[in-house]
Amino acid sequence: MLKSSAILLACCAAAFSASAQQGFKFSNPSPDEQREAAAKAGKQAQVDWQLATPCRDRIRNRKIVVLVGEEVNGRVSAPQGQFGRHVEAINMRLKGLGLQTYSAEQIRKQVAQEEVDAYFKNDPDRALSASRRLAAQYVLKGVIATQAYRNTMVNVNQVNVALDFTLTDAAGRPVSNARATNASYAGADVSGMALTLIEERAEEIVAQLYSDYCRNAR
Fold it and tell me: What would be the CATH architecture of the domain defined by 57-216?
């Protein structure tokens, strides 16, 4: 009896050792999980490649103003006090890459609201005046656009949010554009959802902006 037990234990140990060597798993990933993992790895590889873009010291030290506004019925509302967390979510990552940006509080104190609005109304004279006051060479605008409707398939309200980031020089010449989208059921808090979207996609957005800035900024 003891001999049989010893043999059984030895067989179990051998099987466990062989399974460990072969990378045994209790369950293998499904095809959907494999595709999701491959897509995630592909996105990360793209981000890593973009963040490795050489960036000249001469443009690293140039000041960038980050502004965020919300488009409602074709008009953009851009009180920076309301979007401070959105601005800082991007600012923090740009600063981490060695670029120079203004905080939302600095912008609010130094630039009048009508001059902030000028950036979103494509008023070049007023926008240039604000850029000069801040001694900023580049402007990064993020516009939150929303679409709310009734999803009849599940009988709930749904809101789609799109964020378009456009980086231009002080004269309005384009340098980069990055876009992110998301959707939520019964989404009444559009600003909060937009912030979640920025935080979820910030790495991809900033990598695109950073790569284009390092390649295209003059």
Answer: 3-Layer(aba) Sandwich (3.40)
pTM: 0.75
User: In terms of DSSP H, where are the helices of 124-189?
Assistant: 124-134
Domain boundaries, the chain: 57-216
pLDDT per position as a tens digit, 1-30: 444 444 444 444 444 454 444 444 556 778
Structure tokens at 17: 């050792």
CA-CA distance, 117 to 113, in Å (whole number)?
6
Contacts of 180 (CB under 8 A, 6+ apart): 162, 163, 197, 198, 200, 201, 204, 205
Q: In this structure, what DSSP letter does residue 27 have?
A: S
CA distance 123 to 114: 10
Q: Which residues are 68's β-sheet partners?
A: 142
Q: Which residue bears the tokens 């876009």?
A: 179
Q: How many residues does the chain have?
A: 218
Tokens of 32: 């959907």
Measure CA 30 to chain center: 29
